[in-house]
Prior knowledge:
The structure holds three protein chains of three kinds.
Chain A: E1 10-18, H1 23-36, E2 40-47, E3 55-63, E4 76-79, E5 99-102, H2 111-114, E6 119-122, H3 125-130, H4 137-149, H5 156-163, H6 169-185, E7 205-209, H7 210-221, E8 225-228, H8 235-247, E9 251-254, H9 258-270, E10 275-279, H10 281-297, E11 301-307, H11 324-329, E12 338-340, H12 347-362, E13 365-371, H13 372-376, E14 378-382, E15 429-431, H14 445-460, E16 469-472, E17 477-482, H15 486-498, E18 503-508, E19 510-512, H16 516-522, E20 528-533, H17 539-545, E21 553-558, H18 567-578
Parallel strand pairs in A: 1-4, 4-5, 5-6, 8-9, 8-10, 10-11, 11-13, 12-13, 17-18, 17-20, 20-21
Antiparallel strand pairs in A: 1-3, 2-3, 2-14, 7-14, 12-19, 16-18
Chain B: H1 3-9, H2 15-42, H3 46-70, H4 105-129, H5 133-158
Chain C: H1 29-43, E1 50-54, E2 69-72, H2 78-88, E3 93-99, H3 100-106, H4 108-117, E4 122-127, H5 162-169, E5 173-178, H6 182-194, E6 199-204, H7 217-220, E7 222-223, H8 232-241, E8 246-252
Parallel strand pairs in C: 1-2, 1-3, 3-4, 4-6, 5-6, 7-8
Antiparallel strand pairs in C: 5-8
Helix pairs in contact in C: 1-6, 3-4, 4-5, 5-8
Amino acid sequence: MSAARPPSESLSVALLGSGGAGVLTAGALVTEIAARSGWYGFITRSVGPQIRGGEAAALVRLATRPVGCMDGAFDLLLAIDWNNADRFAAEIPLTPESIVVGDPKSGTPPDYVTQSGARFVEIPLAEIAKGLDGGRANMLAVGIVLGLAGIPGDRGAEAIRKQLSGKGEDIVTAGVATLEAGIAQTEAIADTPQLAAPPASSGERWLITGNEATGLGAVRGGIRFAAAYPITPATEVLEWLAPALTTVGGTLVQAEDELASINMAIGASFGGKPALTATSGPGLALMIEALGLATAAEVPIVVVDVMRGGPSTGIPTKSEQSDLNIAIYGCHGDAPHVVVAPLSVADCVFTTQWAVHLAEMLQGPVLVLSDQFLGQTKAIIDRPADLSFMTRRSVAAEIDAAKPYHRYATGEGGISAMALPGTPDGQYTADGLTHTPRGTPSSRGEDHVAQLDKRRDKIESHDYGAHWAEIDGDGDTVILCWGSLSSACLEAAAKLRAEGVAVRTIALRLLAPLNTARLGEALAGARRVLIVEQTHSGQFRRHLQGHVAFPGEVDVLARPGPLPITPGEIADYVQKWRS
Amino acid sequence: MTEETKAAKNPVEDMATMLAYAHRIEVEAAERYAILADQMEIANNTELAALFRKMEKVEGKHADHIIEKAGPEGIPQFGPLDYRWEEGEGPETLDLTDIHYKMTAWHALQLALAAEKRAYTFFARLAKEAYDKDVQALAREFAEEEEEHIEFVMKEIKKYSAPEAGWDEDLDPPNHPD
Amino acid sequence: MSVTAEAPKRKASDYISDVKPVWCPGCGDYHVLLSLSRALAQMELEPENIAVVSGIGCSSRIPAYTNCYGFHGVHGRALPLAAGLKVARPELTVLVMSGDGDGFSIGGNHFLHACRRNVDLTYVVMDNRVYGLTKGQPSPTTEPDWDSALSPGGTGLRPFHPLVIALASGANFVARCFSGDVNGTARVLIEAIRHPGFSFVEILSPCVTFRPDEKQWKTLVHPAPVDPTDDPARAARRIMTDDGFNTGILYRGNRSPYRAPAASEPQDPGVLERKFVI
């Protein structure tokens, strides 16, 4: 092992192989060992459409600080075999600086690898593994990656024990021996992209996926009922919640479809239990009618949309931000509701918790726009702070029998106290029909306008505080983004700053209602605004331009999935625009 | 014959129960006329709404009259389904499916007449078949009162003539509100 | 009958709100509202502990006419909404009121799964074999040759058999009633509410406006000649071979109602974080 290059603050590693070769487990182990050794980073995966078999890639990025997006190129690519590996050509960009490790007896690398100019290192993985007691090629790969990156293997045993718990101590012993053999294989390889030393320990850190973080945020926020219909890539939110809700005294019910799941959530919340469902684009499309019902009948619910490529079935396993339009504008009629988006894996905890608070507080649906990248990425994060929102749902606990109870009373900012079933003299009918303050169906213009005003006012007059966006840096060039792309934009801004360009980043967490006053303030003095989004049609730009007059020039970097938009791309775009 | 039909044939075995049944008959009739009055108000058939409202009041008075008759001992209270009627419900109730939103007073009074006749039949049978002589006597009194009601309704009907064919014609199609 | 020691706590009118129904005069649904109010009064349930959930259609207007908590939701989705409510608040009495279009057409899938799931709900479908609110289109229970503007000459489709489907899908209680038999229907509703699990009650409820022929139903209905069975095969045979006007409780099963998994002692959400710690 030698290190001619300066140590790097970030290192990207791809592990490739046929399904069954264990590359996803290997990637998870690399991440776990790096985490236990003090680094940050994340793992995400790319797989073929097959449920079993096929080809798989574990994409790991390790760094000395929390990172939330793919880098522009991979420093290391290790292939256990090359079967069908050309499908990853666009996802695993390589440069002449990259190192590629492959088994000479496991096929030939695809053209994109050989043409990249990357340095090729041959290691007979299968043969070496076969020679070890209980040796497996994927464990050997873990050792090779650790060795090349300069990550010590001493936390290997505990990581293997955690990942392979239940498979017996023999497996752990064999795994550790194989991992060490892998590290040994790298000793002779010169000039490898070493990772800089991790920061000194700064408190509790977690290894968590965005979907798990969303579930945790929901429970922290007070969700005690969830209704579930499986859909990629949202299922893990629901799978995490199933036992978690039971633990905290709540319930999850599996529904027959998304129409049922959202209606179950509405029913539970009508009964007073904070309720949630999670889905992805196709499911959200089915839920839209009930979303309008929750708006009109003023029932708090949280709907998490873990976005994937669309329209229609689209690309279920890849990220996109293209549900923005349906999330904000999907309902028929004028149906204002809150839409928020987490800015990182860690922020899934906060944003979902905030969403629960907003739904309960504002008595209506709140949509959380997560995406496949956030949801299915497992990241090393600092423990998210404990927060509690003091205000809860306004409940009419005691009702004066002498006066008729007005569930939908107007005035006082549009929020009216909600009677829960079981409360004497609070009986009312929650209704999707236009209604009077008492809830009686009405088709009169004055009732219609009064209730439309009420529902608009309550969400528009709410003080969303500082949570509406994260604002970073200063300068007359602004990068404006939302949700999952925030990490890439912040990293691009840091890169630009290092290149001497002052950049301000505004990452929106609150997408609807758009906080135009604060956004206007945040944009003050901007000469150039670059809107960055992962859509084909520029949905975010149109949403913004429908509400905000930008002070300077505006450009948009919009690209659909499945490929991520990287910090380098954004920084280059800004540089080109400026020159 | 099942226990239930046997009970329905002769559910009244004592004076208190007799009073409760007589009272319930009037209460159910009043309740039904109230529903009909509401329906006619919603349907904008004001003439019928007024007539049914009047009938509701009349039946309510009959019910009060029975309470007076019971005197200080009062009338035993039962749940709405504790009564056993041969025809399912109290004999003086109207079948709601016989109602039409353009119906006239003549139609309504025909239905009321039929209801009064059913009530008469109920009491007249008890007057003959009740086991208890006192119950028989009380039933006879009620039957006589129903006869008076029948006469009253018949007199009312004479004020109207049977409507011509096409009375239920509607120049507009039905609405579809939701 | 014996004189009760105490006067009943509740009158049927306690369960009726001051909102006047917009149903057509003559509609069978008025009878259903009356039956429901009598059943609830007879059971002496507190109105605030009852929730009436519905979808869209003439019959689905019923929640606002009751003095209970109500939810008038979207078309076809009353069952899942009610299931969510009942699972979240098991102590409530939850009634779902629907019609043949709402319940069997747009809500058909939920019907199957509500029967399967067996949540302790009472599902009442007022079946008039027509879409009334949209002015007379054929529903899943309409006869194949019933002529209408939307399906001239009839749909030619075999009518849906809700009772058999309920039975096959796992409903724990199956009954058919006729709206005109107010007290008979009320008695069945009481049994349905008391019976654990998912109870399905089809009430033949004539539409006098679009199906005036249904005024004849009162001459066609007759009580089921035999007692209810707990054998679904026998119940299915009876229901499939009857004339469609056989009323009463036709099946009373003994499946355990849906029970959500529950912790013996709820814990603080903090315990959930442990497995994330590196």
